[in-house]
Fold this sequence. Notes:
Elements: H1 5-21, H2 29-38, H3 41-53, H4 61-72, H5 76-88, H6 96-107, H7 112-124, H8 132-145, H9 147-159, H10 167-180, H11 182-194, H12 202-215, H13 220-232, H14 240-251, H15 255-267, H16 275-286, H17 290-302, H18 310-324
Helix pairs in contact: 1-3, 1-5, 2-3, 3-4, 4-5, 5-6, 6-7, 7-8, 8-9, 9-10, 10-11, 11-12, 12-13, 13-14, 14-15, 15-16, 16-17, 17-18
Amino acid sequence: MKRTLLTLVTILMMGMAASGHDDPPVFSQELLNEATTTGDPATMWMVGQCYALGSGVERDTTTALQWFMRVAQNDAQYMTCLGSYYENGNMMPKSYDRAVQCYRQAAEQDEFGAQWNLGRCYAKGYGVPQDKAIAMQWYERAANQEGGYMWQLGEMYLEGDDVPQDTQRAIQCFERAAQQEDYLSVLLGERYMSGDGIPQDLKRAFQCFEQVAKRNDGFSTAQWKTGECYANGIGVQQDKAMAQHWFELAAADDDMLKWELGERLATGNGVKQDKAAALKWFELAADDNPFYQRKLAECYASGKYVTRDKAQAAQWLKRAEKSAGK
């Protein structure tokens, strides 16, 4: 099964946490017994971290490396993590040569994180002679496997970082990344919307949002942005009914968006004004949320969006206090 960039980041964060950014693992006989008896990779890795840091046990990088290797020799992603330890010097003695060895071993097993890191080593001349052509080969191998790296390659082309500046190549990378990951399609839509680094294209921005909204009915950000496009006629003909349709889908499981939809309905902002529907969405947002219960109480007290009603204000305020005390 292909691992995601998020999984790789999680493993790398284990090293960051254990190097002082968060609470590191602490050695104990129970931890050692579990690692020895279960052979669980994450537990064995934590034992290695304890020895590498001297956390609850005398610091011993040789023993740490033995534990790390017991895991990494069977898992290319952990080998990538070990390479990062050598590159950054935060667990093992800093050594670009050893980092490259780890990255290369993992990269040859098609581990995209290692491929990207190996490309960076060639680009910067870390542990190997600088060679930007070889660097690009490894960058592209990683990017072809994982949308996040394809997007990062696009950023590099946009900025001319380790590669010749080429806006058209950057756009191609962004488009390919967007095909791999829904969240990147939304980012691309935002980029086309703002014209940040690439030519503004409102029609293409709308397409990016709508494509994700249609194929991923749980992606509220794409649904809401599609609604905004219809509401304001951005990249598509203005259609308040369609705007409301997408806003309602987006708001279904999000109290903040429920409240915002209520405000739009109350004021006719991008949708047909409907104060009765607005109240329904305000109440849905406030149903089990003390923050919005208080906001609705304030609305009843002031007459904002709803008919002023002191009894309703008191009732919602009492509900908020009760919910907050749970």
